[in-house]
Amino acid sequence: MSPESIPSIVSGLTIAIGVMLPALAIGMIGKEAVRSIARNPEAGERIQLTALVLVAFAEALGIYTLVVALVIKFVQ
Amino acid sequence: MGEIQLKPEYVLQVGNILISNAFFTSVITTAILILVAALLGKSLKGVFGTSTGQLVAEFIFQPLWNLCYQVLGDATLARRAFPFIATFFVFIITANWIEVLPGFLGALYVHAENGANLSLFRSPSTDLNTTLALGLVSVGFTQVIAMQVLGPKAFFLRIVNIRKPIQTLAGILEFMSEFSKIFSFAFRLFGNMFAGGVLLLVTGFLVPYIIPLPFMVLEIFVGFIQALVFALLSLMFIKAASSHG
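^ Those are the sequences you sent over. The predicted structure of the assembly is below.
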């Protein structure tokens, strides 16, 4: 593990580990959203909107990790 | 492949001011939007007109207005917030889709001082400066509307309330979270678009034929979703900030 290759390795590890929990969060939001639409199809539009907003919050956390990984790799 | 840069790349100089390629493209985006708005505006003929331009304009703006009215609930508040929300959506979606436009990004190159060739065009959303500005405008506008609706006394009472100390603690935390919202807006849009641009660059570099196509479709979809999420989140924060109690 030479000093020149450490940024690449660390960048890869950062993004790989960092998106595990946001992916889980998005999956859980999706599961509850689909279940509640199935229980109450009338409120489908409302639930879809809420789910989209919550997924955006969860996805943003994964994006923060991605930005950190990019900074580690591309900024000397 | 040396074109992946987080820093803005300065390509033009007007007097003493350096202009980055993302800012130049955002000026082009604004020019496109003004052109389209002028063309559509000329063919508006009242509430029941059916010219093509009017139908296109209604197709774009009617769902946005319905969204504003449905989330905010109040017609005057919706009418006040709608121009900002619609502009956020239309500007961000144009800026995102310009990235996927074939032949646009690598078209013109400018030779920089240190020998590198910098592309003249770069989607504005891939530059942290533009997204930070958009985040600032969104959160600033939320505060202005909240102060207009609640009145200055109730607005400041929400942050610091001497009579109820526990609410003061929660109010200060909420005040801090307003700043984190700015960065959240900025990094969400920047991260999505920059990563998409890097993805397109890398797949175009590895296998230039056929393979980038599904990734471009993904980019189009992600661009639309990010514009929608920005507008929707601004709307929800406006509703949260201007609701009483």
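Residues 10-71 of chain A form a domain with the F1FO ATP Synthase fold (CATH 1.20.20.10). The radius of gyration of chain A is 18 Å.

Shout if you want it in another format.
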